[in-house]
From TrEMBL, chains A, B:
Identification of the protein by name: Protein GrpE
Family annotation (InterPro entries): GrpE (IPR000740), GrpE_CC (IPR013805), GrpE_head (IPR009012)
Keyword Oxidoreductase part of the UniProt annotation: no
Coiled coil start-end: 20-54
Pfam family, one: GrpE
Keywords linked to the UniProt accession: Chaperone, Coiled coil, Cytoplasm, Stress response
Subunit text: Homodimer.
GO BP annotation list: protein folding
Function: Participates actively in the response to hyperosmotic and heat shock by preventing the aggregation of stress-denatured proteins, in association with DnaK and GrpE. It is the nucleotide exchange factor for DnaK and may function as a thermosensor. Unfolded proteins bind initially to DnaJ; upon interaction with the DnaJ-bound protein, DnaK hydrolyzes its bound ATP, resulting in the formation of a stable complex. GrpE releases ADP from DnaK; ATP binding to DnaK triggers the release of the substrate protein, thus completing the reaction cycle.
Organism, as annotated: Phytohabitans houttuyneae
Chief subcellular location: cytoplasm
Database matches in HAMAP family: GrpE
Gene3D superfamilies attached to this UniProt entry: 3.90.20.20, Head domain of nucleotide exchange factor GrpE
SUPFAM superfamilies cross-referenced by the UniProt entry: Coiled-coil domain of nucleotide exchange factor GrpE, Head domain of nucleotide exchange factor GrpE
Length: 165, 165
């Protein structure tokens, strides 16, 4: 510190220097916060959009499930002439599956593949001599979507060890 | 400006004061920007969420339309025994309407009300002696949602002036 005849001014200068450094620091922090906020927001926006998409798509799954249940029932009962209506509704069912795929949620109703806890929910185990244990032998309710974008796993029947095998 | 024996210091002090004021100003601006950005993001997030909701809900409307077309067709043709299937599918149709209402998109298929260009799209005009001109006399395709949240207007038949009236 210089020895000057104007100690007040000198002190003020030192204070000002401190203030300048502090203010510059604050300003830079605020700029960094601004930048972080922008980046965070871009990520959040995409995440929120995806969450909303999944929420709305999920709301429709019970409608599609019931449409399929009604169709399955009608097809087992084809002694009645529900043929033309059932045909039309199969097309509606397919259309719904295309809508879901278009939103990023592929349908999964494959059988004969190994059980995968990420994609399957085993609701029944059944002895089956024709396939290795742990194979999906029937899909009771299809799954939709994969990984992060999974709406729900497929509910399946899995082959169990045959007794005595 | 004071007359002091340390002119360099004095100048520096003045510069520092300017810098302090400028930096403080910058810092405050950055904070204000941060605050504005936060508010803007909150609004934008809600708007984007609503847009995604509408987009996904809209994707399902053709599915519901086709389900209804198939049902209408079957009901006109009830000489055939598509009864049980049609019954089941009416329930599915109602379920879909409840899903849409739950997402904020009420169904609009009222007749006997005045034509409203905000909510109706007139696709046919028909002479009708029993109602005033400009009345919705038939809904060809229901509308969903209101105001900002309208997914689509209802496509309607509107009563025209009767010739000679």
């Amino acid at each position: 510190m210089e020895n000057g005849p104007v100690p007040v001014d000198t002190k003020s200068t030192v204070d000002d220097e401190r203030t300048v450094a502090e203010l510059e620091d604050r300003w830079r922090r605020a700029l960094a916060d601004l930048d972080n906020l922008r980046k965070r927001y871009a990520r959040e926006l995409e995440r929120e959009r995806a969450a909303e998409r999944a929420r709305v798509a999920c709301a429709w799954l019970p409608v599609l499930d019931n449409l399929e249940l009604a169709l399955d029932h009608a097809q087992r009962d084809l002694s009645h002439d529900s043929g033309p209506l059932a045909q039309g509704l199969l097309a509606v069912r397919d259309q719904a599956i295309v809508v879901l795929a278009g939103l990023g949620y592929e349908r999964h109703d494959e059988t004969g593949i190994p059980f995968d806890p990420e994609r399957h929910e085993a609701v029944v185990a059944r002895a089956d001599d024709h396939v290795p244990p742990g194979t999906v032998i029937e899909v009771l309710r299809p799954g939709y979507g994969d990984g992060d974008r999974q709406l729900r796993p497929a509910a399946v029947v899995v082959s169990a060890d045959t007794p005595g095998a």
